[in-house]
User: Fold GNAT family acetyltransferase from Streptomyces resistomycificus.
Amino acid sequence: MGDLEIRPAAAADLSAIVAMLADDPLGAQRESPDDLSPYLAALQRLTADPNQHLVVAVRDDRVVGTLQLTVIPGLSRRGSARSIVEGVRIHADERGSGLGTRLIEWAIEESRGQNCQLVQLTSDNTRTDAHRFYERLGFTASHVGFKLQL
Amino acid sequence: MGDLEIRPAAAADLSAIVAMLADDPLGAQRESPDDLSPYLAALQRLTADPNQHLVVAVRDDRVVGTLQLTVIPGLSRRGSARSIVEGVRIHADERGSGLGTRLIEWAIEESRGQNCQLVQLTSDNTRTDAHRFYERLGFTASHVGFKLQL
Assistant:
């Protein structure tokens, strides 16, 4: 396998990103890979926001992973910022290759560079493999994640 | 008790907000109520960011609660935004008054107004009273919340 590059996502990557979002037990019913227009509008909003870092992992000119890192300034912990990782997806061909680790390590390093004191994420209760993965990377399952659909 | 107002936080509210952040079993060791300068810098950063909504609840000219709502644009769910609630604090004198409910209901309404499809938050595993509170408000404890200190 060729070298891996992690770089900001661009419009030309959207089709590959949305295919990964849809190729997932939870994502299959929530996405519309045949209509990219809502995703393009969202990408423009993300790109304009300096606290948003949507990246893709590229190998041999192919998008094989994605992750969204959000920097959240705040008052608590003496005015420190934290970061939140969302939308981690790895192409089916790359699972088990260590790419997930590379992407999360990128997010941790970027968070340090942005002076965050904390990196946080939530993972669906059913994704037990993901839970073990995050614990191996040093994360602690210290919180309950609550969601309310609007 | 007088009427309650929920409004954006201002510099003059910082002392009261930080006192609430510090008046908490988890917050006591993490805050510096005697030195507000790092909080003022963070407030300026929050105020300049259109996706950040740091509010205070005020009754009889007294700050009695606070909450931070962050709007996070994203690609998943057809390019929908979500919101994250952080830093919910209620003054000790107001606990049990329904103020927590009022603040979370404000956050839900603001999230709808910002076209968010989802409101999410994490609560420390030890805060079991808070867990019941969020479930009563319609939230589902569907996720595990992972944190990594940097």
User: Anything to note?
Assistant: Chain A has one domain: 4-136. The first strand of chain A starts at residue 4 and ends at 8. The longest helix of chain A spans residues 99-113.
